[in-house]
Amino acid sequence: MTRRGKIARLPQSIREQVNRRLENGEQGQQIAEWLNSLPEATELMAAEFNSQPISEANLSNWKLGGFADWQAHQDALDVAGQLSEESAELDDANGRNYTEQLALCLTARVALASRQLNSLQDDPGAQLKLLRELCMRLVALRKGDHNVQLLELRRDELDLRRKQLKSEDALRKLKRKQLEEEIEPTQ
Fold first, then answer.
1. Residue 27: what pLDDT?
2. Which whole-number Å values give the CA distances from 29 to 34, 39, 50, 55, 65, in the listed order?
3. What whole-number distance in Å separates Cα of residue 147 and Cα of residue 145?
4. Are residues 110 and 141 in contact, defined by beta-carbon separation less than 8 angstroms?
5. Measured CA angle at 25 (ends 21, 20), to 5 deg
6. Which residue among 31, 71, 91, 146 is buried most deeply as judged by most CB within 10 Å?
7. Residue 69 confidence (pLDDT) above 70
8. Helices (H), the chain
9. d(CA 132, CA 73)
10. More confident residue, 130 or 55
């Protein structure tokens, strides 16, 4: 979902600071005053919101939407980090790469999002929408897994083919040498 409110339109670095301040329990009035003192926020409010400053109500709306999304993302990162730590020994043994770590993070995010289904019991439409989104994410994750496996199989097949060609080339050279040795004594 694309958010269009005052806070959502601020640069990402400022939104991150807003989220951290909210997470730390800073009061809305203090955050609004801080935001309204920033040149980036003042310029944005002048350009897109008829110079209306950011209010506590704007922060309250953000807290229910963008901030909640940010918290879910942070939770997903925490879960992924925990999973990564718990499986560090296996990861070292298997030589896990960056894309596998990313897939782990995405899997954790999908798992967290699936928990939201219970909180949407009163809104079947929202529940269905979230379920569709989760299904699309899972399909994309699985497709990525399958693509990685297919790539590994193709790489193995290519290695085998190279070895076969080298063996065939070595066999031809050996036969040629044997033929040359057989022909030499008769001359």
1. 94
2. 9, 18, 21, 8, 18
3. 5
4. yes
5. 25
6. 31
7. yes
8. 12-23, 28-37, 39-48, 56-64, 66-86, 88-94, 98-119, 124-186
9. 19
10. 55
The region, left, alpha or beta by phi > 0 then psi within -120 to 50, assigned to residue 50 is left
Distance between CA atoms of residues 93 and 131, nearest Å: 35
Quote the percentage of the chain above a pLDDT of 90: 39
Q: Of 41-55, 118-132, 139-153, which has the strongest mean pLDDT? A: 41-55
Tokens of 179: 């033929």
pLDDT score for 129: 83
Rounded Cα distance, 149 and 157, in Å? 12
CA distance 41 to 47: 10
User: What letters, b where the CB count within 10 A reaches 16 and e where it falls short, cover 139-159?
Assistant: eebeeeeeeeeeeeeeeeeee
Residue 88 one-letter amino acid: A
Residue 59 has pLDDT above 80, yes or no: yes
Q: What angle do CA 27, 29, 65 make, to 5 degrees?
A: 70
> Cα(first)–Cα(last) distance of the chain, in Å?
86
Quote the pTM value: 0.51
